[in-house]
Amino acid sequence: MIFTTIPFLIFLIAVLAIYWSFPSDRWRQPFLLAANFFFYGWWNWKFTSLLFAAILISYMGALLVQRVGTRSQRGKYFMMGACTLLLGLLGYFKYTNFFLESLRGMIEHLGGHVGWSTLKILLPAGISFYIFQAISYVVSVYRGKLPAENSLVRLGVYLSFFPHLVAGPIIHAPTFLPQLVRKRIFDSAQFVEGCRKFALGFLYKAVFADNLAAPVDVIFKTLKDQSPLTIFGGCLGFYGQIYFDFAGYSLMAIGVANLLGYTLPDNFNFPYRATSLIEFWRRWHISLSTWLRDYVYIPLGGNRCSHARQYLNIIITMFLGGLWHGASWNFLLWGGVHGLALCLNHVWVRNREQTTSLNKKTLIKICSPSPILFWLLTQGTIFLCWIPFRAATLHDTILIFQKLGTLGTMTLAQLVQAGSFPWLLASLPLLFDMAFNGSEGLRTRWSLHSTLALYGVIAGALLIGLLFMHSGTVNFIYFQF
User: Fold this and answer.
1) Total number of domains constituting the chain
2) Does some domain include residue 2?
3) Are 364 and 195 in contact (CB under 8 A)?
4) Half-sphere exposure of 338 (CA within 13 A, CB side)
């Protein structure tokens, strides 16, 4: 079910009505677990068994870790065993065909011949998200950050919680499982806050993301027939689309969780106002960045090592982050470029700090670019990195960069005539609002003190979304991951 469709709204209303009619969590949590599995089975009921397997592996693995002792050698073996099984599920469904295709291509490039073909493996929705959550739970128990959960129902609710099940945010077990133990009382203020966030996310998705998706999809499917400026317009459109799409989903997920009495962490903090790649990754897909930091970067050594090793750790982490997004060389390229750019950013920061420590104030004043230049450089890098992320193949990525390289021969009039630009221009004011006014501006405007005014804003956002939403259903981009 897509959050912006009628079936989901019917499902949500029914779940809320039944959920809050129960007198205590003793009945709410089993019902919520059933609702989670119904939601996940809506796409393909067969994959509910895979979700249950992930829950069972993490449940048994954590109990075994706790039984033999956290931080113990035997506990480490059980933790690694559970994580291996979980990664095995992810690897089989998401990366088997990528491995077979890459191996076949390499052999054929060397003049050989292979007789196998790819397997008919359907990628389960949201598998990357709930597998990462399961790993975070088992590792957190091993590290002693929380006790193993004795209730299979509570752990099941955590791993299958439908608001964030298929596209995040990725929730760390220590921040969510304690909420399942507390007594839940209906909070009208939290409920209204959930409506506000859902309405804003609906506006982001239905009005901005979906209307940008239509021309962007056409342009990327017909690259050979498009002019350089039209392709540039398509890339700019995707730059806006992916933010509105994913941030919209995250807001809606957080809002639905609030309606059920739970709190989820913010996943975006206006990343397009970032003036460095380091800052961007503190603002974009925060839950994934935090997960990669805690479970990949820090275990590799983080910054507690030589500078060269730290840069290698960054590149490895971003490569894995790219691979997490999808099984293709494009995503590896996207992750690798971000990794290299982050390393350059760290080198710049370190050199600037050393220069400051030497009190070379004149040199700093002369050589330090203005914040606008930092912003342009950062967003330009992000814009270019979105190209391999969106392109279907490496060949398409190369073609796009080849055509963009000829932009100097075009005129501004041709830019205005590009078919995708009406909705691009419509989205730019909000993009600039996010970039320059920042989170405080929008949050202040959306945090109204008058209850009546707040209800009006919520209703208005939903009405605008319904009036201007794109005809037809457009999947959220991150559903494919």
Assistant:
1) 2
2) no
3) no
4) 29
| Domain containing residue 127 | 23-185
* 13: in domain: no
Q: Which of 151, 208, 115 is CA-nearest to residue 25? A: 151
Same domain? For 71 and 180 the reply is yes
Which comes out higher in pLDDT, residue 467 or 270? 270
SS3 content of the chain, % helix, strand, coil (to 5): 75, 0, 25
Asked whether residue 323 falls in the same domain as residue 254, the answer is yes
Between 359 and 277, name the one with better pLDDT: 277
- Backbone dihedral region of 438: left (phi > 0), alpha (psi from -120 to 50 degrees) or beta? left
The pTM of this model reads 0.87
Show which residues are catalytic: 325
Angle made by CA atoms 476, 220, 331, in degrees to the nearest 5: 65
Residue 263 sits in the same domain as residue 314: yes
264 lies in some domain: yes
Q: Point out the domain boundary residue: 166, 185, 204.
A: 185
What digits encode the pLDDT tens for the residues 321-347?
Answer: 999 998 899 999 999 999 999 999 999
139 lies in the same domain as 249: no
- Segments in 182-270 forming alpha helices (H): 188-203, 210-221, 228-259
Domain boundary (185, 206, 232) is at 185
Residue 8: inside a domain: no
d(CA 319, CA 323): 6
Angle at 87 between CA 83 and CA 90, to 5 degrees: 150
If we measure between CA atoms, which residue out of 128, 104, 97 comes closest to residue 322? 128
What is the tens place of the pLDDT at every residue in 406-441?
876 655 555 555 544 544 554 554 554 554 444 444
> With 0-12 CB in 10 A as exposed, 13-18 as middle and 19+ as buried, what is 270?
buried
Rounded distance between C-alpha atoms, residue 286 and residue 301, angstroms = 21
